Structure formats: C-alpha cells, structure tokens
C-alpha cells in the first residue's frame, strides 16, 4: 500500500522519497520517482512523513529506533501514522513527536492496495488542527475520503479497530455461509448471484466472494492481516474488559488458515478452512 | 408480514381470504378486504395458498393438521410455503401436496413487514415449472424480486438459510462493533456516520444501526426470530456435519437477549446484551 500511496503523491505533483526494507518494492518506487537518497540527509528536510507499515512495532522502529526519524525531523513537520495500532499506542507516539515539536496525525487507512495506487483510500484521522493543516497535501493526494474524527489522537485508531472488527468478521462469515450453502446444494456462483441483493449482504461479501467463485487467491489483502488486526481488536477489548465472542470466533478461523499455510493467500482463502473440515471442493482457478 | 402481503394481493386486484389465530390482525385484514369466511368453504375454491407462518411446526399444522388445507384444496392449485424451514421439511411438504395433485413452491420470503406491505419482498423460490406458473400472480403482487432457484423444492429454503446465517451474524456483529467502539470513545452516532462508507459495512448494519442511535426498539423484526432462524441453520449444519462457529457465537448473543426478556424488542436490542456486560449506556429513545 505504501508504494501505491507514494505513486499517488508523485502523480499529484509532489516530491516523494520512499524507504522500504523490501528491495523489489524500492526498485519499483525508484523507477517511478527517479528519486532515492539517504534518510539522514532527507529526514530534516521533510514536511510530511507517512508511516505505512504493518503494526505498532514497525511504526515504533521507524519513528524511534536506531534510524528513527522523530529526532531528525524539523519542528512543525508532521508524522502521519497509517498502521492499524491501538489508540493507546497512537497517543504514545503523538507524545514522543510532540516532545520534538512535530505534529502527529493518527490516520489509519482503509481500502487495499488497488485504492492506494489510485489515490482513493479512506483515512480515519484524528489529531490537532495544526496536524491536519500540515498533513493536508498528503491526505488529499492519497484519499478519496478523510473522516475527521476530532482533535484527540487515538480516535482514528479506535474507528479503524471498529472497522477491522466488522471487516474481518464479515469475510469469515461470508466463507462460513458460502460453504454452508454448498452442503445444501447452493453453489458459490448461485450464492453470489442471489445474496448481494438480499439482507445478508456485506461490503466484504461483495468484494471477496468473487475470489472464491473464480478460485483466484492472489492476495489483495492476505490472511496474515487478520490474526494481527483482530488480535489488536481483542487486545483493546481485553484492556476495556469487553467481551467480543463473535470476533474471537472469526479470529480462530483466520488462525487456523494461517496454521494451514494459507497466510500469504488472499483472505478469502479462509473458506478453505471450512471446505477442508467439511470435505467440500471449492471452485478451482484457471491455473489450477 | 402475512397481513402486508395480503394487502399487496388485494391492491393488485385479486381476491384474498385471510386466516390468522391473532384476532387484531384478522380485524385489520377484514377492514381492508371486507372478506372473511369459513376455511371449509373457501379451501376447495382457492387457486393459491400462501403460508406465512413462523416455522415448520406451524406450516405443518396449517397444511396437514386437523384443519389442514392440503386434503381440501383442488387438484392443480398451488401451495406457496413462505416460512423459514429446513430444505428437508420443504421436500416433505411438497411430497404431501403432490400426493393430492397440488403444486408446491418452496418460497421463503425476505424483507420485513414494511416491504411486505408495499409488495417489495425478495422471494427465494424453487419448484417445478407448473408450480411457478400457478403461483405467478401471488409472487408478482408481493415481490419486487423473485429468485428462481431451479425445479427442486429445497433450494429456496437452502438459500434462505444461507441468507439468515449472514443476516443474523451481521446484526450481532454490528452490535458487538458498536459497543466495542463505545469503550474507545466512538459514539453510536459517529459509528453510523463513518462505517457505512467503509469496508466494514453490511446491509444489516445500515438498516439496524440507526435503531440503536435513536434508542428505538420498536420491533420491525424481533430478537425472537433469531434463536429460531439461526437454530434452523445450525440444525441443518449439524445434519451435514458442518461446523459453523461464528453462527454459533451469534446465536448465543440472541439467546442471551431472549433470556434477558428482550425477545419482543427489535433485533437491534442484542446491543443491550453487550452494553449490559460492559457497563455501557446506549442512547435512550424519545419516550425513555
């Protein structure tokens, strides 16, 4: 998603510098931008740093690790934290940035890699008005919709956690319903012909269901996202003494998928857990 | 829903006779139609009987009980079975009807009481072509969309079970996510402002979420529907050796709601189970 977002920023006419430990992604970025460089040189000149990594640990490493950018960025610049993290962690990072005179926007992203590349993400953002002002050009270049969730860092991450709870449960429920239907003679294709017009539909069902029908598990968003994101949801829930039994049941299905070696496949592959348990044959892809 | 459907049939210019053990519903129907009468006189003259009751036991009583209509209807007439039942039960009723030369359409309905009254239901129908032909005027009058799911009775009920699995889980998941958000400072109103535009949305979330925001639990579809319908889903699943852990988790929340005395409230009241457990205050309605 970071590569797509950097591309959107370049297309909007801004200068962008990319940093990724993944060499092929860096090669693609350099081919797009013609720009590379050394972080020590570049960090003090940045207006905006968008941190598009997997989780809190990676965010902390980028911001405060041995090569961390918070101590190197100039006063009045802004850090946009895009990973899915707990509200408490977002507040912690904002305090660290503030101590250096750097603004912090709590701004988790939603929409997947295709929308990242087309500049059509949804961003759930919270932070002080100055942080929104400083971040504006990057938000405009990458997002179709920015939800402004107030001046308290943490609100963006809270809303993202709520969205991930729903999105993860809906994917696993789609898989449960589709394979349940197969036991009763409803084919995945019939399922997708009927259910999107009915009260049982969801955004995720309409988006991921076709992957199962076509047997194409090319990962737009992988199974491995969900043990992480639903794990964050349940960590937050536990801290709040909140019981989330449906989320727990969905997490278990994604964990079973990851343990079965499906972690790098598209998250619709959670259907394989159900099919395996019930002895059902899912549709095969063109290449199978 | 039966009253609304009968009204739609009258509005389409057909004659309709209504039978309900609920006296106020019968009074409303008689005020609309001016028509009542004795089942013994009417059954032999019917072209179509639509059976809009709660479950398999009620369907069986109407069709084959002491006052059952199957032995009284004429050859070539059609029975339209609209309750949510198992595919096996639908096949059993079709066999009974066929033995008397009566067509049977397996035709569960979806959409709720408001769409029933406006003739805009979705109907998931399967049965022999002759059954569809015989049922056509009633389907046209009551449904916006008829999904024709083939000539095997049981397919309609199977698709309905799939839809109910999804719809029930999505209602309970909406409640889980909304109350989880409240523990993190996301109000139900903010939730409904943001999530419907995000990947976490579902048809049920958009439909039922506003009931919680407004604190209005007037039952368009009641809590009590779900122990029944998710129970049917899990009974079918068990017969097929299919494990449906997310459905089981959602059912448990509806059962807890029913045990707490919320059975007659709108199904969005499953949020009260979460709020009660977590010590949260849901929005109050105007009358509270």
How would you describe the oligomerization state of the chains in this entry? homodimer
- What's the CATH H-level homologous superfamily of the largest domain in chain A? NAD(P)-binding Rossmann-like Domain
Question: Overall mean pLDDT score of chain A?
Answer: 94
* Biggest interface, CB < 8 A: A-B, 70 and 70 residues
For this structure, the CATH topology of the largest domain in chain A is Rossmann fold
Separation of the first and last Cα atoms of chain A: 28 Å
Overall number of structural domains of chain A: 2
Number of helices of chain A: 13
Tell me the overall shape of chain A: globular
The ordered string of helix (H) and strand (E) elements of chain A is HHHEHEHEEHEHEHHHHHH
**Sequence stretches where pLDDT stays below 50 over 5 or more residues of chain A:** none
Percentage beta strand of chain A: 5-15%
The CATH architecture of the largest domain in chain A would be 3-Layer(aba) Sandwich
The description of the largest β-sheet of chain A is: 3 strands, parallel
Q: How much helix is in the residues of chain A?
A: 40-55%
CATH class of the largest domain in chain A: Alpha Beta
* Helix and strand composition category of chain A: mainly alpha
Rg over CA atoms of chain A: 20 Å
Strand order of the largest sheet of chain A: 1-2-3
Number of strands of chain A: 6
């Amino acid at each position: 998603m970071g590569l797509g977002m950097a591309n959107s920023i370049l297309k909007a006419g801004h200068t962008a510098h990319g940093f990724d430990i993944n060499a092929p992604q860096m090669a693609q970025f350099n081919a797009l931008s013609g720009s590379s460089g050394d972080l020590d040189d570049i960090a003090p000149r940045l207006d905006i740093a968008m941190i598009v990594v997997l989780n809190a640990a990676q965010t902390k490493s980028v911001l405060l690790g041995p090569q961390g950018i918070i101590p190197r960025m100039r006063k009045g610049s802004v850090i946009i934290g895009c990973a899915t993290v707990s509200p408490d962690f977002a507040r912690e990072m904002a305090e660290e940035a503030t101590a250096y005179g750097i603004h912090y926007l709590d701004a988790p992203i939603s929409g997947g890699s295709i929308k990242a590349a087309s500049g059509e993400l949804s961003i759930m953002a919270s932070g002080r008005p100055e942080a929104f002002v400083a971040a504006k050009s990057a938000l405009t270049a990458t997002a179709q919709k920015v939800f402004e969730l107030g001046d308290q860092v943490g609100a963006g991450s809270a809303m993202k956690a709520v969205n991930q709870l729903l999105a993860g449960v809906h994917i696993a429920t789609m898989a449960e319903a589709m394979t349940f239907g197969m036991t009763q003679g409803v084919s995945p294709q019939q399922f997708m012909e009927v259910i999107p017009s009915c009260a049982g539909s969801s955004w995720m069902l309409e988006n991921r269901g076709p992957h199962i029908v076509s047997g194409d598990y090319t990962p737009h968003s992988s199974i491995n996202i969900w043990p992480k994101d639903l794990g964050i949801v349940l960590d937050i829930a536990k801290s709040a003494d909140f019981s989330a039994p449906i989320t727990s049941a969905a997490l278990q299905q994604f964990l079973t998928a990851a343990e079965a070696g499906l972690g790098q496949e598209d998250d619709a592959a959670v259907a394989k857990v159900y099919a395996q348990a019930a002895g059902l044959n899912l549709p095969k892809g063109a290449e199978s």
